[in-house]
Amino acid sequence: MHMADALISPAVGAGMWAAATGIALYSIKKVQDMENHKVPLMAVMGAFVFAAQMINFSIPGTGSSGHLGGGLLLAILLGPYAGFLTMASVLIIQALFFADGGLLALGCNTFNLGFYSCFIIYPLIYRLIVNKKPSTARLFTGTLIAAVIGLQLGAFSVVLETVVSGRTELPFSTFIMLMQPIHLAIGIVEGLVTASIVAFVWQARPEIIEHTSSTRGISVSRVLAAFALAAILTGGVLSWFASTRPDGLEWSIAKISGQEQLESNGTIHKVLAAVQAKIAFLPDYSFKSSPELPAAGHGQQWPAVNGETSFAGLIGGIMTLLLAGLAGLGIMYIKKLRKAKVLVE
Amino acid sequence: MPTIAESLNNIRLLDELSGQATPVHRLHPLTKLLTTLSFLVVTVSFGKYDLSAMLPLIIYPVALMITGDIPFTPLFKRMLIISPLAIGLGIFNPFFDREPLIILPWLQISGGWVSFTVIMLKFVLTVLAALILVATTGITGIASALRALRIPKIFVMQLILTYRYIALLLEEVARILLAYSLRSPFSRGVHFSAWGSLSGQLLIKTHLRAQRVYESMLCRGFAGEYNTGSLKRFSLLDLAYFTGFTLFFITVRYGNIPVRIGALITDLIK
User: Fold this and answer.
1) What ipTM, to 2 d.p.?
2) B93 to chain A, minimum CA–CA distance in Å?
3) Which letter does DSSP use for residue B190 in this model?
4) In this structure, which of A236, A281, A291, B211 has its CB flanked by the most CB atoms within 10 Å?
5) Are residues A38 and A120 in the same domain?
6) CA proximity to A226, closest of A124, A119, A330, A133
């Protein structure tokens, strides 16, 4: 479920980076107060999640297999703050060394796979079910339900991020109908694997799970405050780079309904629209449209389909590739000459 | 999902490549990190139909692979393994967007195929950029760049340690799976009855290992600081590298070089 750089827009990437950085800084502040021995524990557990994800767990009655999901297990073993940071490290290593999820999409991935598990699902669902007195049955059920809901939220986020980025043509409704059921099935398997591990560890070495269960829960209001700050930053700074073209959601609405915005009926909508018209200081982000390009969403065709431009683009593209190839060959030739010179000397 | 052997080979290869001494390797890690980020931002900022405009960006990875002595084949194999996601989401574009966009006398290509190709090109470029960064900088270089950016040391230390233990734990998982497969030769994966015990035991072993690791670190004088080595100083070459490439990326982004070259050639033909 790792987002790739190719599927997101810079605004979405930067916005999610800002949100993930805010949460990470807050978590670091929390983790800094803890004992030093937790750092190697976080690292080794991160490595465990990475390595354990390579194990194929065969699903009974089917020919296929499932894998372990990381975020929730890390939150259960290390607590939400350390769990989130460890998940972020694992995702950085996956992005850098395995190209699994991009560097710009790192914010999206940390959010989708770390934030929901550690800061929403762990305190609100897992802890609620497991409560103060964990038992094997409670741990199993809590982990299973939490894993399933966590993955559903993550998958929903992937859909939103992709659609808002507007890089794929998949309409919102189709995309969501594809993603959620698939991730429900994956979530159940992931949940069962994670729950089996947690239940086993609880029976063999209960102190590993007891330690984090007894620690104080997280302050959801503070996480929300960090979230709000990130949102203000995103809205205030990054919107300078907003596209003048319709965004993914507007676009998918337009595709489905034939209109750029949905028409609103009813008194509540009319009252709210009137209030919005009065208070909105950036109505529809009215950007200056460039003289060459017709502004999108005004009934004019975009992009301009033109045979001459297509041909020029094709010729130019081929020329660029040739030039790039020649430059590469040139550098290789120079390097060969240098090597030969060194050998002669 | 790559196999354990593939992952281990990948880590070893990138570690080996990052130990070379080419002009690219000698640059300051922060220079390479920032240049990579500016490349990524420019690459993903291209519109969904800007195929020809973004082609000159190919020069960046090609130039770095040649000057940095980085072989293309292993990087390409890596891309093949992870490409299903980009293909899976991009392949819907030709079905939903059928309007002709490129019109040539002998051929018409729909907007969907163009946007799909743009997604694939972006995918190749961004994946190559990340792998090249690691192959020319290494994890210690990246860690020192992060420290230079004032990322808290607790996070950077944790990142390096996680990386170091991944190789170790991958080998351990490989041994466990080998032992398991020898005892259950016809199974495709771990049986349901062993889900908890197999990985749970690994987890407990890992937990004990973390304690031993910490004790060993204390024995070697660990006092909360992980030394990433002395940071290189910025040179003029670093400045030239970063400024040169960033200017190139901006020119590519706003200049639409291929269309200009193409227009020039078609004008000459006329």
Assistant:
1) 0.88
2) 5
3) B
4) B211
5) yes
6) A119
Give chain A's domain count: 2
Quick check: is A68 in a domain?
Answer: yes
What range defines the domain where residue A323 resides? 308-345
pLDDT tens-digit series, residues B139-167: 989 998 998 898 988 889 889 989 988 98
Whether A266 is in a domain gets the answer no
Tokens 């919107």 label which residue?
A239
Give the count of beta carbons closer than 10 Å to the beta carbon of residue B93: 24
Residue A185 to residue A190: CA distance in whole angstroms: 9
- Give percent above pLDDT 70 in chain B: 96
Q: How crowded is residue B188: how many other Cβ atoms within 10 Å of its Cβ?
A: 13
Peptide bond into A303 cis (omega under 30): yes
Q: Is A307 on the interface with B (CB under 8 A)?
A: yes
pLDDT at A288 over 60: no
Is B173 in Cβ contact with A55 (below 8 Å)? yes
Question: What's the rounded mean pLDDT across residues B24-53?
Answer: 92
Mutate to test the interface with B, among A23, A55, A78, A244 (most CBs of B within 10 A): A55
- Regarding whether A183 and A74 lie in a shared domain, the answer is yes
What are the structure tokens assigned to B88, written together? 């899976």
List B109's β-bridge partners, or say none: B102
* Residue B67's pLDDT band (cuts 50, 70, 90): very high
Contact A49, A74 (CB under 8 A): yes
Contact between B7 and A54 using a beta-carbon 8 Å cutoff: yes
